[in-house]
Amino acid sequence: MQERAADNPGRCYAVRAKAGEVVIVPPGWAHCTINASKMERMLFGAWCVRDFGFEYDDVRAHNGLAYYPKFDDLGRIIWEQNPSYQADNLIEKSPREYLEFAIDSKRPIYQQYEQNKSKFDFVVRPDLRKEKWVDYLP
Fold it and tell me: The whole model's pTM is what?
């Protein structure tokens, strides 16, 4: 994910999530989800605003995001920089706990939603938590 899809994409992150982990992408950030395994299938759920329209023009104009994964000769993921961007370094990280959104990393997210739907109002109304998006760390 990256802060924007302009020539200077801002901060760029590769978040390596595993089954059951949650990753929150802030509003307006360019992002993609990639299965980084040659052997395992990937299933994931994505929650987004129904009225939101995905804007791919800048991503297409840059031939994708600022970094893209490749497998090296040993089958490990390496990241190659897209020369269409003036990007700084890619930061690789694991998902973190989202205490500011009161998400319990030990319980399935759908179960938390069923028990308290309003907890996830920030998904459909990101303006309700706009202070959380300033200097956001994925």
Answer: 0.90
